[in-house]
Amino acid sequence: MADHQRQRIHPVVVEAPAPPTTPLVPPGSLRSEKGSSNPYHRPSPLLLQHSHAMPPIIPLPPKKRSRSCFCKCLCWTLFLIFLLFILIAAIAATIYFVFKPKLPDYSVDTLRISDLRLNFDMSLYAKFEVRITATNPNKKIGIYYEKDGRMSVWYTNTELCQGSLPEFYQGHQNRTVLNLSLSGQVQAGSTIMAAIQQQQQAGRIPLDLKVKAPVAIKLGTLKLRKVKVLGECQLLVDSLSSNNLVSIKASNCKFRMKL
Fold first, then answer.
1. Helix or strand run (H / E) with residue 116
2. DSSP single-letter state for residue 147
């Protein structure tokens, strides 16, 4: 009994169990906002192989080459137009200061009524003889009067007669006298004749003398393209009696050039 009590009591050492080789929580069950929180999670070899097969997509830069070419073409076009405008302005200024162009001047000297009568069909036949003076006031510019030039006499809105202008060249500071014969026939002449006779009693009959002449300008030895001289003379005469020299009481002429 004494021997049994004398036995020593030795402490028992309990060994800690080995850590488990398999994680207690299955992979992929715990994830955070930035990805998987499981340290044992690894991507599969198939995913790695697929990621190596597809390169990353890089966005292409915007196409600025076509826009740049368009801007360059537009700038060059505007520059050429501006340069052409400057060139034309310089040529026009040179012509103006060197040649000092002036419009030709025309005046109606005399107007004679050769015939003015009613026909059996009540049409009005008119034949006028007109003498005009054409003056070229330019010192360095000549004028070529080309074919198809016309002159006509109008009463209100009715053309009474017309005739052609001759072809000729008018030199520097030249004055040329033209004798023209104009003739024509108008329907419904009785109405026009009655109106003319009524105004003839007052001694004031309005007439319009219109001119359309194609001309070519000569600058020195250079002959330019054709232009048109358009003119209108408003006349106020005392009568339109046949075989009578008409007295021109007033005359107002205006002329312009048309390209």
1. strand 105-118
2. S
Contacts of 226 (CB under 8 A, 6+ apart): 146, 214, 215, 216
Instruction: Of 134, 130, 131, give the one whose Cα is nearest residue 142.
Output: 134
100: left (phi over 0), alpha (psi -120 to 50) or beta: left
Overall pTM surpassing 0.70 (yes/no) = no
- Tally the C-alpha atoms within 13 A of residue 208's C-alpha that lie toward its C-beta: 11
CA distance 192 to 197: 9
Mean pLDDT for each consecutive 10-residue tract of the chain (259 residues)? 49 53 51 48 51 56 65 85 88 77 88 91 93 92 93 93 94 94 91 90 92 90 86 91 85 85
Give the closest residue to 36 by CA, choosing from 19, 18, 23: 23
Q: Which residue has the tokens 């994830």?
A: 31
